[in-house]
Amino acid sequence: xxxxxxxxxxxVLRDLRRRIVLxxxxxxxxxxxxxxxxTLGCSQAAVREALLRLEGEGLVxxxxxxxxxxxxxxxxxxxxxxxxRRRIETRAAARIVPRAGSGDLASLEAELTSMRxxxxxxxxxxxxxxxxxxHLALFRIAALPAMEPILARCILHTHRFRxxxxxxxxxxxxxxxxxxPILAALEARDAVALAEAMGHHLDTIVEPPTxxxxxxxxxxx
Amino acid sequence: xxxxxxxxxxxVLRDLRRRIVLxxxxxxxxxxxxxxxxTLGCSQAAVREALLRLEGEGLVxxxxxxxxxxxxxxxxxxxxxxxxRRRIETRAAARIVPRAGSGDLASLEAELTSMRxxxxxxxxxxxxxxxxxxHLALFRIAALPAMEPILARCILHTHRFRxxxxxxxxxxxxxxxxxxPILAALEARDAVALAEAMGHHLDTIVEPPTxxxxxxxxxxx
DNA sequence: CCTCGCACGAATATCGATAATACATCGAGG
DNA sequence: CCTCGATGTATTATCGATATTCGTGCGAGG
Lengths: 221, 221
Hints:
2 copies of one chain form a homodimer. By secondary structure, the first copy, chain A, is mostly helical.
């Protein structure tokens, strides 16, 4: 009734993306445009736009008139994508440090604050969105705009795979805290330390914290 | 006007992509959905779908109701993307060699043949499409499906930048011939040679053939 | 029993029209 | 003269309806 049909497409997009990354919509699930339109209470065009964008993000595969399916999760590809992400973000450190202004630092602090808020609320999806926003805001300082969507895609798929593998789920507060050294290195204007902090951060995303003995720092709980 | 309206969206997509990569539509050009619809003789929906996909490929930027513009070309980002592409394709060599079957080799031979045909006809765009098809077909053997769109994007942007910088234009026949060593290394089932051939191929994409090769070796994962 | 062809159903692709919205222009007031 | 607000226009966002296409199941023929 008073449902705001404005931004229907963006709403559908966010909803489907959340459900796919959170693995509520499992790989292979078939999505139909008219079916989603009726379920979500909007027209086919809005669903269509959302599915087009999700295809661009690699979360669904559109097979013409045969329907749209949620893409599969592949361990090898996930590891390659994480390695790619690691390379992109660590290499960017040398460009980020000399370009970071005080406004950038303030924005990143704000992102980290909202991330801690999501962790305190136990809101897993808000945590994912805040993490993506933090890493993209950091990378944007590197001034490589054409690479931002590539990194965004890598980050999104990293999260998806991490959430799919149950042993990769961890305490949200610890995840938020793991970003502090990155920001500290940036505030110290130390490019080497920033690259190392970022690399270590990414190394600990999918590795179980107990698998190696070199994990001697903050212990959750 | 009697043009078949079937596949209108795909036709618009290919047309706009070609014109952007070939730099006929220069960065900053403003595209309107209804304007393109009238020019191309189709409806707004078809143009809209094409623009959505082009945005997903990073060739245009949609700014809501403020219009859609052709994205800028950035030298730094282009070099980073090429380096990223080099890493992806050389790393894939070790996965490609043990997985390549005879059918794959035949397909790649066919791709190379069509590339030579495009070179003989002097068809620059057909050459670009054939090159993309060859590299993607080769990478597909690596069985990392989630990374294929990332590589596709890198290849597309590499071509766009190469065509934008006029000194990077070369003889089409020489470009086609430069792919032969890659296929030869694959047929020899030599992963190291394949990686080297691919790396050399990519190093000579934007470097003038007479300059000395400067190796930009980065820390391997 | 197997294969081929055809109608049927389901889903997308496309269309035209309308609503919503951001930008530019112009006019009034200070 | 400058600033601010109302209005007009251009453009996207969304909707409902229709055309097109692909898979499927059934029946006839070999």
